[in-house]
Model the fold of this input.
Amino acid sequence: MKYLIFVFSIIAVVLIGYNVTLIDFRAPFEGQSTVAIITILASLCAIILLQILRISKKIEDKSKL
Done:
């Protein structure tokens, strides 16, 4: 599970990097830039959720001891 969370986090970071290159900073809320911004926000949410899952697994492992 630890490696799966790590892989998904890396994929989300790569998606953020790719979508930053698609944003037209002169008109950030028009056309493809809007889709890129939405995808960046979705990737950030995915990273946050994966970190919450990682922390909850750590707590679960410590509570079993």
Notes: Residues 32-64 form the longest helix (33 residues).
